[in-house]
Design brief:
heterodimer, A: 288 residues, mainly alpha, 13 helices, B: 317 residues, 15 helices, 72% helix
Chain lengths: 288, 317
Amino acid sequence: MSGVASPFRQAGAERVDPLLVALWITLIIVAMIWIAPFVFIIFTSLKSNATVMGTGAFSPPTSIAWENFTNAWRRGDFGTTVVNSTIITVIKVPLGLMISAMAAYSLSRIQIRGHKVVFLAIVFGTMIPFQVMLAPIFKQVNSFGLINTYVGIILPYLAFGVPYQVFILHGFFKDVPKELSEAALIDGASHFTVFRRIFLPVSLPVLAALLILDFVATWNEFAMALVILQDPDRWTLPLGLMSFQSQFARDYGQLNAAIVMTVLPAAIVYLIFQRYFVSGLTSGAVKE
Amino acid sequence: MAVNISAADRHARMPTRSGQLRRKLQDPTLQGLILLAPAVLTYAVFAFYPMIDVIQLSFMKWNGLNADKHWVGLDNYRYVLADDPVFWVAFKNTLIWTFLSVVFPPLIGFGLALGLNQNIPGRSPLRALFYMPVIIAPIAVATMWRWMFDPFFGLFNSLLSAAGWPNLIQDWLGDRNVALYSVFIGYVWEVAGFSMVLFLAGLQGVSPTLIEAARIDGAGRFQLFRYVTLPALRPTITIVLILSLINSLKAFDIVYGMTGGGPAQSTQMLAMWAYTQAMQLGDFGRGSAISVVLLLITVAIVIPYLRWTLKRHEAYQ
């Protein structure tokens, strides 16, 4: 990131590189295309329906229609869906990370007989698109009588978080120097102690990255919730937005206000914790 | 870093409770099993078992709710493959969708990563912007784009009429010849940033000394790219292509939210058709048979990749 002081130069070069300038202009144009949908949605969310139909797509709102937000909040029953999403996410994300970290530690450091088979079965899960198996998942949750309950959605969410998180944490734990844990084990510490006192603190950056990724993934999940949470009182935010869209598609301002309210929490989390996203995404996939 | 085993922990190991339980808990294997159990149990019951169960269900006639469930052998497959008019449409759409997903988002992501790996102003905010759509709920992306494709007041048709090209105005999601590609445009916007981030990470792994050496040897820009950067990126390229392919099979939310498979099944895909058969038409057997076909395709692609990954994992230890 040192290059910002003398931009448009290749490493070590003194002159400005015209190709880099051309590249930069291209990137700016693409960026404008990328940002256009956001601008369009925000502008529309602040216009009354009459203004939406009367003015151009990119003309800024002249008088701001805040009532779109209050109306959409009420009609879309956002109060209920936000509470449901929050309860599910706040329970699922830390719990899932905890059980994944425990399993990853066990698989990488204790090596019980058959640990390779277990690891393979789990890694296999990272590659299976679970959206294709909604029916058997519904059947499984239903057989425990957990349809329309928080537990009924949290358990499959936990199950689908395990593969990716175990895979990444396993890779990370394998690289922790052996000396660090062996001294403690020889002193008579249990694996529980070594895990809690050594491995958890050492892996805080990875855990933070996974925590944020998982927060966003859980907050945004739609397909599984659609199948398991059929009672509107249990709906999460994405289900609420879907229902709002099919009911009030012609109330343009309110529809866009609903989109903004749905997108905002994840967007804020992303903007605050941006740099963890990249490390979290890539530490598993493109690891040296 | 300092390792402090606190007095509290030492105290916990004192023989306060039943000595037998304490001795058992000192067995490392038992400790390992206790640590492993919660994750493996949830995974086995709610992810792995459904994978097995879907195969079993595909040989059954069952509506998913009542007790009347019986074995029908290959009937579901016969129906799905021979008589179901939608299956092959969905199959073809899935193929088109997967092909497009493996080509366009990675190419755009690669271009963006190459550009944003250079010494240019504002590259951090630009990276953040291109990645932003990835973290938005796919159902919100679908709702956004559905509104932008609105034939009367949406973004695209407004822009086209403002630009003086009214003959290009379309019913983007209502015309069965263009709907699939309209949905795909929204999908590209959603996922290109994901490929970009992976490529950026890969580019950071290209050895600077190697580039310097090649430049001293007189390599031009193109030669540098062709003979240094591209070979070094080979593992990243493989990973991005595989992940794009797998993610394209997961493209459920965006289709559900934008068109629901219509008009006239022109955006129907296998994952959503499996859902529709089982959960909406109440035929778990047929839905499961479609899922099994899709799983078989996935596994055929995934197994070679997993072997390659594991080999790499072992090579780096």
